Structures are given as structure tokens and as C-alpha cells.
Amino acid sequence: MHVAIAGNIGAGKTTLTKLLAKHYKWEAQLEDVVDNPYLDDFYNQMERWSFNLQVYFLNSRFRQVAQIRESGKDIIQDRTIYEDAHIFAPNLHAMGLMTNRDFENYSSLFNLMESFVQGPDLLIYLRSSISNLVDQIHRRGREYENSISIDYLSRLNERYEAWIHGYNKGKLLIIDVDALNFVDNPEDLGSIINTIDAEINGLF
């Protein structure tokens, strides 16, 4: 079983991934943020490092998906291979932070990789307002995220909504996280788990 959590920066993907992994005894596949050699450079000089960063993420997530399918284990994944290709890379290109040449090269690479991977059995999308994202980003205090602008988050949110609207890789569950506090409120986490249980039971 392969479950994946999608959502904008600060939506709570990693936290929910860990909580659900613990509850269901699934193995968690987390996003490679700590060891990513490009993140600091990217946030300081986006135009120079955007292609390098996106290729690093693409490589990392393609490897993850291959390992998930080979392992035969029940795995929950923090962010999908699709988000980079449908949201982050096109956004950088549209903002003039990735050249046409690099974007075409990246897209060609993704299309090739996508032909070798399957979508998750269940995708959980965490929908969030910009104000909630900003609060969460400030609360966790990652230094390299200090320079993220509201305009950048808004553009990403628009692309997420467009992608989710046309998502067709498998079962989809949308959770509006603005009204939830699944970290401090066990009832909120419980309601999410109940909703997921219903989706999972429908898979079999």
C-alpha cells in the first residue's frame, strides 16, 4: 500500500506523515530537506540554482517511488514526484527563474521517469490558506525559508488547486487543514484517521 501526502510549503505534510505512520505502523518516506545540497543556495539565488534543485528533487523522488514498489511494504510518502513537475518547476519557469531550455530539459526527464512509475494508491491533499501557511512556516523557523514571499506561496497554491482539480492517478482525499490542529488536538487527528479508514476500506 502506497499513501502519499501532498500540499504547499507549510501545510503540515511531514507532521501528518509521521503521525499517520505511527498510527497505521506504515513506513514513512520523508522529503530530503536536511541533506539537500541545493536548498540554501536556491533560496539565496533562485535563478541560478532552480534547475539543479528541481533535478535533485526529481532524482530523489523517482528513487523513492522505485523503492516503494520494490519493497512491498505499506509506505506513506511526504510529497510526490508529481508536485515538482506540475507545480514547482512550472512556477519557477513562469516567474522567469528557470530558462526555457532548462525547463524543457527538466520536463523531458520527468516525462520519461513518469512512464516508469505508478501513482499512489491514495493521495491525501492538505488544502491550506496562505495565512495558515505563513503562520506554520514562521513557527517552524527554518532559516532558508525566511525569504519565501507571500506572492510565491500564492502562485504555488493556485497551481496546487489546478493540479488537484485534474488529478487522475488514483484515489484522492482532500483535507482542509485551516480548521484543524492535528498536532495538539487528538479529536482532529482522529477525524482525519476515520476519513482515511473509509477511503482505505474502499480500496479493497
TrEMBL record:
Keyword Transferase among record annotations: yes
Alphabetically ordered keywords of this record: ATP-binding, Kinase, Nucleotide-binding, Transferase
An MF annotation (GO) of this entry: ATP binding
Gene3D superfamilies in alphabetical order: P-loop containing nucleotide triphosphate hydrolases
Deoxynucleoside kinase domain span: 4-198
Top-level taxon of origin: Bacteria
Family in the record: Belongs to the DCK/DGK family.
Name this protein carries in UniProt: Deoxynucleoside kinase
Organismal lineage: Bacteria, Pseudomonadati, Bacteroidota, Flavobacteriia, Flavobacteriales
